[in-house]
Amino acid sequence: MDYIGAGGASKSLYTYGCGRVCRCLKNVHTSEIFPPTNGVGKAFSTNDCTGAYSTVTSTLKNAEWVNSVSYGGSGSSSWDD
Question: What is the pLDDT of residues 15-32, one digit of tens each?
Answer without folding.
Answer: 666 677 888 888 888 899
